[in-house]
């Protein structure tokens, strides 16, 4: 049974690393928010696996906090993106903004135009 | 509680947690390999709902033989409830903002019903931002 616990830990670690890779690569800020969600899901699973392995119920409130934190984080990032795009659509002549989010940043590989 | 039943519960619990972490790994792989935001959202939602529910079932089965505190089960149920209620909302808001700000690659979509509807009915001014 120990091998299965080790396999669980290894898989969660690899999942978190892949989420970090997408967070570094991610062409837009929404991809990064999504990878934060996956990281939080991995952390939830990891804390749950800890609680199950040690039969220790004291980390269960942490699961509650993490599940709410993921929701608040992704929603507030989405609202932030929407408001920033809306603000820069009102003055249509501000082309000189280097930090504006244009639709072209959906193209993979074009890193400019996004604040990390 | 007999010894055999405890062992069986342990095995069922560890298989549930293993399935949850496999889903988490699948989400990580899909996050790196999939080409656009919507398909990444599709794969990222798996460990957030199904994987987490499996892990919560596993925790409950591991805790049952030693702890019969009602607060533990209550916390697990609360986590499951919050997650199943909030994850669809967060996914909807993220996809809506991504669509409205033009981050969705239309060449990867098989069918875009919202674009047809916006063409026929017109867009309400100012509704572009998710309110």
Features:
heterodimer; A: mainly alpha; Helix Hairpins; 3 helices; 69% helix; disordered C terminus; B: mainly alpha
Describe the structure.
The complex is a heterodimer of chains A (116) and B (131). Chain A has 116 residues and is an all-alpha fold. Chain A has one domain: Helix Hairpins (Orthogonal Bundle). Helices cover 69% and strands 0% of the residues of chain A. Chain A contains 3 helices and no strands. Chain A has helices at residues 2-25, 29-54, 60-89. The longest helix of chain A is centred in the middle third of the chain and has 30 residues, at 60-89. Chain A is elongated and about 55 Å long. With 131 residues, chain B is an all-alpha fold. Chain B has one domain. Chain B has helices at 3-33, 37-63, 70-100, 113-121. In chain B, helix 1 (3-33) packs antiparallel against helix 2 (37-63) and helix 2 runs antiparallel to helix 3 (70-100). The radius of gyration of chain B is 21 Å and the shape is elongated. The termini of chain B are far apart. At the A-B interface, helix 1, helix 2 and helix 3 of A face helix 1, helix 2 and helix 3 of B.
How many structural domains can be distinguished in the coordinates of chain A?
Answer: 1
Give the low-confidence spans of chain B. Answer: none
Shape of chain B: elongated
Oligomeric status: heterodimer
Biggest β-sheet description of chain B: none
Biggest interface found: A-B, 60 and 61 residues
H/E element sequence of chain B: HHHH
Strand content of chain A is under 5%
């Amino acid at each position: 049974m120990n091998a299965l616990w080790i396999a669980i830990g290894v898989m969660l670690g690899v999942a978190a690393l892949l989420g970090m890779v997408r967070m570094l690569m991610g062409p837009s800020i929404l991809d990064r928010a999504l990878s934060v969600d996956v990281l939080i899901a991995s952390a939830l699973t990891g804390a749950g696996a800890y609680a199950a392995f040690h039969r220790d119920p004291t980390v269960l409130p942490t699961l509650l906090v993490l599940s709410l934190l993921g929701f608040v984080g992704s929603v507030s990032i989405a609202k932030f993106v929407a408001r920033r795009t809306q603000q820069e659509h009102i003055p249509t002549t501000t082309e000189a903004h280097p930090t504006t989010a244009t639709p072209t940043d959906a193209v993979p590989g074009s890193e400019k135009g996004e604040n990390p | 509680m007999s010894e055999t039943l405890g062992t069986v519960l342990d095995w069922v619990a560890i298989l549930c947690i293993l399935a949850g972490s496999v889903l988490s790994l699948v989400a990580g792989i899909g996050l790196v390999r999939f080409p656009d935001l919507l398909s990444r959202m599709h794969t990222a939602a798996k460990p957030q709902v199904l994987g987490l529910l499996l892990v919560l079932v596993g925790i409950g089965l591991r805790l049952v033989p030693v702890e019969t505190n009602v607060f533990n089960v209550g916390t697990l149920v609360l986590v499951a409830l919050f997650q199943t209620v909030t994850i669809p909302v967060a996914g909807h808001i993220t996809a809506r903002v991504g669509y409205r700000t033009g981050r969705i690659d239309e060449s990867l979509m098989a069918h875009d019903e919202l674009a047809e509807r916006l063409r026929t009915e017109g867009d309400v001014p100012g509704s572009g931002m998710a309110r």
